[in-house]
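Appendix C. Worked example: WD repeat-containing protein 53
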Amino acid sequence: MTIKPLHELKGHKAPVLTLDYSDKTFLGDNTLASGSEDKTCRLWDLRTNKVIKGIQKLDNPVTSVKFARKPDLPLFYLSSGNKIYVYDLRAEGPLCTMPNKTFEFSNDEINSIDVNENNKFLATADDDGNVNIIDLGSDKLYKKTTKKHQTICMTTKFRPKKSWDVWSGGMDSKVYEWDFSRGLPTNIYDMNPEEPTAAQMFNPPFVYSLDITNDGKWVAASLGDTTIQMISPPSKKVKSTSKIRLINGHNTMVNCMSFIETPNQSASLISGAANGGLAIWTGFYNCTSTTLEPAQTFQVDTATMQKVNWLKAYHKDDQLHVAIAGVGPTPESGSLCIYALPKVVN
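Step 2, the predicted output written as structure tokens:
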């Protein structure tokens, strides 16, 4: 089923690489942030689909963006090159050109950032394979992990409800669970299946992105072999690790995904592949099998989106929406579109 965009958010002059969304921010409700190869970031009011702030005068493409986790905090974070920039959203006018703070603790390009749920720490994943933890109170490097990915670290994510848990994934096909108070890995998960298929031999399970449910029970890793690995770490009630491989949702690398949750039902997962394929996954909380197939699949209209780089799912007016960032009709152009998806029933 091909889906066309509800809205096109126009303004970026090059491919759009990354997104973040928040229901409530210092700037208002339903706010989307986008970062692009054009070395700018834009903040959008999705109630009007208009830009409310622009961030310019960066030296490199914007690779990751993050709102403060507390809506009353007027702070916004982004990575560009090997630096983290912090902006004060109280700045007058529609343009921000001067960061409030700059952190430079990475030697190589940063691919992903995350802020923990109490807004005390920021994690970075970089091309060196390192995960760095920055103390946002002291503005100092809190911890550099003692071990690192063998090659590029693509993604990092704090685990909710677990104060010292941060996760990372890389091009070594590994997912690390870290105790960042000590800088040590507590678990290392190999994404290579015990009996790889022919497709997996040619498309290794490099880890492109991570997402974690709000209750911290499920960690999802999107992989280069067209699948997604779900991991449910041990807890006080459940002593063993549960794993589910999400299969048959995509036919090329899965490079982005987003959990979507409502107060009255379990989380669902929306995943995206580089070729514009989308899949909705439900039922993993009650799954007793080691594999799970998608509830529904879609294809975005390639007239406006030639390649998908990132997505963020959210609810607005009781409707499931997904914001998708990527490459427009030509390889040099950017695309940022909003799509409506059918309601998910778990």
